[in-house]
Amino acid sequence: MALDDTPVVDAWMQHPVGEFLDQPWLESLKRWNDGDFEDVPPEWTVQAYEGAGVDIGLLSAWWGPDGPLIGNDDVADIVDAHPDQFVGVGSVPIDRPMAAVREVRRCVEELGFAGIRVVPWLWELPPNDRRYYPVYAECVEQDVPFCLQVGHTGPLKPSEPGRPIPYLDDVLREFPDLTVVAGHIGHPWTEEMMALATKYEDVYIDTSAYKPKRYPDELVEFMRGHGSEKVLFGTNYPMIQPGECLEGIADLDLGEEARERFCYRNAAEAFGLDIA
Known about the structure:
With about 280 residues, the protein is of the alpha/beta class. The chain has helices at about 20, 25-30, 40-50, 70-80, 95-110, 120-125, 135-140, 165-175, 190-200, 215-225, 240-245, 255-270; strands spanning about 10-15, 55-60, 60-65, 65-70, 85-90, 115, 145-150, 180-185, 205, 230.
């Protein structure tokens, strides 16, 4: 459902494709969602976003130890076909540092992507591992945010790489110019993630993988107060449909300015988006 005239940006979504959907670690998510996710044409994803009234979806690639699960060029093809609906977020092979740096450059300079995402649990490496550091440096040079997952791991992978302190805290001290968007709230370490977003100027939290009724109380209070400039709306589509994530936002009692910041203004600032 659309939020009146308030624009909406989804900070984390992906278009599902066969190789991504065939991963064995998705079994837990399939169980929670009462069945399989479908390998659907891009038009279905477009319709889901148009129907929900979401203005822009930040469409993510995925790269793991065995290679791309959702390729950067696949994302670029969808963005090129629907440039008013989606903006690309690339991914890179952190185990090959120079290839990763070159792919960051290609994603930004050639494909026009607005950020880079690496999922720590997929690599089973916390974000202060040395293999991430060339990517951080190139994200700073390219002036794009680095996006990652924080909190427990829903898929059948270790959760420890998602703990914000000390792992992400180490990174933020060593890369003070790096913009970071941390997805999935950080539960059960939400307060740790809120502390980092307060401590560091260019650190944001996105609410992907959670419906508003499941936002932790402490996060909602943060959004209403001094954290109003730090939290971004997200879905983690297709695991949750965008319309389902929009339901309940009015019940958060954010106030007009905080709601606008949550729905689109903070994402526009973090990702450099031009939204009227």
